[in-house]
Amino acid sequence: MIDWLPLWLSLRLALVTTVILFVLGIPLSYWLAYSRRRWKVVAEACISLPMVLPPTVLGFYLLLAFSPDGSFGRVLDHYFDIRLVFTFQGLVVASLIYSLPFMVNPLLAGFKNLPPHLLEASRTLGKSDWTTLRRILLPNMRPSLITGAILAFAHTIGEFGVVMMIGGAIPGRTRVASVAIYDEVQSMNYHLANRYAAVLLIFSFSILLVVYLINHHFSQSKAVV
Amino acid sequence: MNAPPVHLSFRATKMLHTAQGRQLFDVAFNLPQGLLLAVCGPSGAGKTTLLRILAGLTDTDSGDIAMGGDVWLDHSRRISLPTRRRPLGFVFQDFALFPHLTVRGQLEFALPKNADRSIIDDLLRLMELEELQHRRPALLSGGQQQRIAIARAIARRPRLLLLDEPLSALDDEMRSKLQDYIARAHRHFHLTTILVSHYLPEIFSLSDEVIILEGGKISKQGAPASLFPKDKITGNLRLTGEIIDIAAAGGLSVIHVLAAGTTIHVVCPAGEAANRRVGQTVTVAYRDLNPVICE
User: Fold this and answer.
1) Mean pLDDT of all residues in chain B?
2) Extended strands (E) in B142-275
3) Would the CB atoms of A124 and B99 count as touching at under 8 Å?
């Protein structure tokens, strides 16, 4: 019988991560798109680093940083009573870092593809940057917002290496679906591993299908206009 | 007679990087209230830069701008009012309409908080946009989009209206109509207006004063009639056109030239016609009421 808890945990982790990344990703990508500061390329490189880095490397450094034996982990533990190693909160923080480029890059492309005069026109109408972002820029980059949210969600669902390093496989707390598959294979329980894998496969495919359908819909409606 | 009080004073320098290389933009002028100033000149002369500096969309290397006693820019005192705090309206060359908003939505967005909303209906009526008010810009023609852009720029009741080549993308009929709309809006809302244009009829019909920019500097400034004096207008009619046919007629030749939307028949000796070919661009002048090819 399939245990739905790992799948539910994966879903919860992905939802929490996506909502937080959505809130953080918009101002961050806005700043990357419009800032004139030269060192923003350093920020861009840092944000994209998880795309090329092996997840175990990222997980290893996060483990060192969050460990109560390390200085950062000790400060969190001592002053804030927060433990990020082998906890769900730790998984969320690691997922935020790991999935950040999958949210920021589509949003950044969305901002850069907007006609430059939209921002300037809004400013000449006396509007603040906050009003311009909320009422002019974001409504005109809906496909990028949807793509960013869905990619970040799907990427978090499929996370394995970082989760293993930082969370282990504590049932109900850190044993997400990808880790459960690994555990079942280790136990030679291929039948159950296959069920978890099939659910993830169908789920991931459906999400990508939705992304492409939405983008296709937007490009069609633009073409009609 | 006293000169009218200065409303806008502008002085700015900036090093521009143009297709022709580096070029210094160095412009200074004063403008009395309620005047319509036309800025013309060749491409790359700095016309759009002038508007963008006024709007605070482009930085300067040095300069100062004051409007009706308010300082917008003062380099020496490190004052630069952000664009949104400058009471101006800007009509971009590509209109820059918001694709997701209806015509009425564009004007409502432009309206400041707590402003009298009746100006929206006034503008829709003035610019003859009432029937289009619930449509989105992508479904409208270039002329209609241009009227929306002008109405939107005026909705916040600016003191200065900046128009960047507002009529360049329109056909002759629409151009003439829109000149009326601009003149109407300028008078109705008591605006001080700066219009960038390279189209002479537009300058004559709309502007009180003209600045000609060349290479980033003012080469001429004054009333349109003083810059383009009537006594310098030639009495000879010259038309440039293209040869579309060359036919022999007895010992002579008839060259058919397509110019100004009509075909002109130029009769000339066969020897002269031998030097011409179909497709060649030539200038036709009238000598003793007969057309001749002169270049």
Assistant:
1) 87
2) 160-164, 192-196, 209-214, 217-222, 238-249, 252-259, 262-269
3) no
Indicate if ipTM > 0.90.
no
Residue B192 sits at φ, ψ, to 5 deg, of -100, 125
The rounded distance, in Å, linking the Cα atoms of B25 and B14 is 5
CB A201 within 8 A of CB A155: no
Q: Give this prediction's pTM.
A: 0.78
Of residues B117 and B72, the one with the higher pLDDT is B72
- Sorted by sequence, the CB contacts under 8 Å of residue A51 that are 6+ apart come out as A101, A102
Contact B208, B36 (CB under 8 A): yes
Domain CATH for A69: 1.10.3720.10
Chain mean position to CA B163: 7
CB–CB of B57 and A124 under 8 A?
A: yes
Domain stop point among B227, B244, B259: B227
| Residue B153, φ and ψ in degrees, nearest 5 | -65, -30
CB contact under 8 A, A139 and B100: yes
Return the number of other C-beta atoms located less than 10 Å from residue A149's C-beta.
20
Residues in chain A: 225
pLDDT tens digits along B91-140: 999 999 999 999 999 999 999 988 888 999 989 988 889 999 999 999 89
Total number of domains constituting chain A: 1
Q: Are B146 and B95 in contact (CB under 8 A)?
A: yes
* Residue where the block lists tokens 């600045």: B211
Rounded-to-integer distance, Cα B206 and Cα B227, Å: 15
Q: Which of B100, B120, B145 to mutate to test the interface with A (most CBs of A within 10 A)?
A: B100
Q: Which domain holds residue B272?
A: 235-294
- CA distance, residue B67 to nearest chain A CA (Å): 16
Vertex A50: Cα angle to A46 and A56 (nearest 5): 130
Domain boundary (B170, B198, B227) is at B227
What's the rounded Cα separation, in Å, for the pair B216 and B39?
A: 12
Residue A210 has pLDDT above 80, yes or no: yes
Under an 8 A CB cutoff, do A225 and B92 touch?
Answer: no
**Residue B110, Cβ neighbours under 10 Å: how many?**
28
| CA–CA gap between residue B147 and residue B133 (Å, rounded) | 12
Question: Which residue from B57, B82, B110 is facing A125, i.e. has the nearest CB?
Answer: B110
Contact B42, B23 (CB under 8 A): no
Are residues B153 and B145 in contact, defined by beta-carbon separation less than 8 angstroms? no
Residues B34 and B179 both lie in one domain = yes
Residue B91 at interface with chain A, using a CB cutoff of 8 Å: no
d(CA B199, CA B222): 17
User: Of B55, B84, B88, which has the smallest distance from its Cβ to A128's Cβ?
Assistant: B84
Q: Are residues B266 and B211 in the same domain?
A: no
Overall size of chain B counted in residues = 295
Q: Residue B200 to residues A18, B46, B50, B171, B195: CA-CA distances in angstroms?
A: 57, 18, 19, 15, 12
Q: Which domain holds residue A189?
A: 5-221
Half-sphere CA count of B75, side-chain side, radius 13 A: 12
